Amino acid sequence: MSAIATNLQAVRERIIRAAQVVGRVPETVTLLAVSKTKPAADVLSATDAGQFEFGENYAQEGVAKMQACSPNATGGGLVWHFIGPLQSNKTRLIAENYAWVHTIERLKIAERLSGQRPANLPRLQVCVQVNVSGEASKSGCQPQDALELCRAIATLPGLQLRGLMTIPAVCDEAAGQRAPFRQLREIRDAIQAAGVPLDTLSMGMSHDLEAAIAEGATIVRVGTAIFGERIPAIV
Question: pTM for this structure?
Answer without folding.
Answer: 0.94
